[in-house]
Amino acid sequence: MRWYALYKLYYLCVRVFKLKPYNLLFLFLISAVSMSCLKSKKPGIPEPVRKAVELSGLNKAELLTPMVLYQAAKDSLKLKSLYYLIANMGGHYEITWQIQDSTGKAYSFPINDYPDYKTLKKHLRLLREKVGELKVVHDSIFLDVKTVKANLLTQNIDTAFKYWQHPVYKQHIYSFDDFCNFILPYRVANEKAEPFRSYLMAKYGESIFSVFNDTKIDLISLVGRIHQVVTGDVGYDKRYELHYNYPTLSETANTHRGNFRDIAIYEVKAFRSFGVASTMDYCPWFADSSDGYFWPVVLMPNHHFIPVFYPGISADNLTTPGKLPKVYRRKYSDDSTSLFRLKKIKEHTPAFLGQFNYDDVTDEYVETAVVSVSLTDTARYAYLAVFNNGRWHPVQWSLAGNKTKTKFVKMGVDIVYLPMIVRKEQTIAAGLPFLLQKDGNTTVLNGKTDTKRVQANLIETATRQALRPNKKYFLYQWKNSGWEVTRLLTANSKGNISVALKPQTLYLLSKENRADRFSDERPFIIRNGKIVFY
Question: Is residue 426 domain-shared with residue 461, that is, in the same domain?
Answer without folding.
Answer: no
